[in-house]
Amino acid sequence: MTQTTTLPDRVRGFPFPFAADTYRYSTNIEPARAVRTTEAGGWGATIVDVDGDYRDELAERARILARDPTRCIVLPHMRVAAWDTLLLGLQELALARPGQMRLRRERNGAWHWVNELAEVEQRFVFGDDDTLPCEPLRFVGDQLQEDLVLLDQREQQLFADAGLVTFAADWSLGFDVGMSFLEVHGPVPRIHVEGIIPRAQQFLLRLQLGHPYRRTNWTMTVDRRLDTATETYPEWGPDRSQVVLGDDVGARLHLRVEVQHLVRLAESGAVLFVIRSYLLSLRELALVEPWRRRTAEVLDELPQDLVDYKGITRFRSAAVDWLRAAA
């Protein structure tokens, strides 16, 4: 049995995604804020997660946005939704780290925000851009480890009309912005024949204020790189063919899991996707014996179309072999 007290924090809080030895796409939606216990520890008590990588990931986000400001896009009609997101994000940060982050409503109706970890203190009036040092979505995104995507609801459809995304897994906010929910998921194999995405959209259209939900998704990546957006493919794409057999596989290959929270916003009625990406190397994953065995089985059984879509074709076999040898 794994001694969870000796495991690194990154392992103990990792949202291991596999409930069985096989994997197929599904909506896998469940209510948010419920703690999910794992063989290593647990996760899921809050909508946003502040962990030991907080400062490093905020610094990485700042570098990406400085290089490419188009990673934050807000179409004009999404201004209220951006303010909605700011208020929700700060409230959730205060819940996650009450000793170091505080949000208080003052008598004059303004808000007072303190984030000791990020060294931010700001008073602002909801809806008044002049009371912030930058655009509201950027202000809150600069203090979150999560990516943010805002879906506008109109004509019984959802449209990705705003977002701040610096840690995308092989997709592009700049390309997807303005697309419908169904169009965004067009390239994903199997889900259209099986009706998963239309059902997911119907669920989101019915999402109620005060009842957030969550789901997980996963892929694999080479090295501890959060930014695998389409725009930066020349930087990370070639690494997929450079992983070699041996200890290099355990250190370089990472299981990447997204915890996606789905929240109906109060003022705008928009749907917010809060997307947190976690990375765990195979070497770290193998510290938990049930995870090592199950991940090897899932990867070995995964149908080829899903292998190709997830971009793991070149190293799937190496990952399976390494995990099985790591026993």
Automatic annotation (TrEMBL):
<dbReference type="Pfam" id="PF11927">
    <property type="entry name" value="HODM_asu-like"/>
</dbReference>
<protein>
    <submittedName>
        <fullName>DUF3445 domain-containing protein</fullName>
    </submittedName>
</protein>
<dbReference type="InterPro" id="IPR021848">
    <property type="entry name" value="HODM_asu-like"/>
</dbReference>
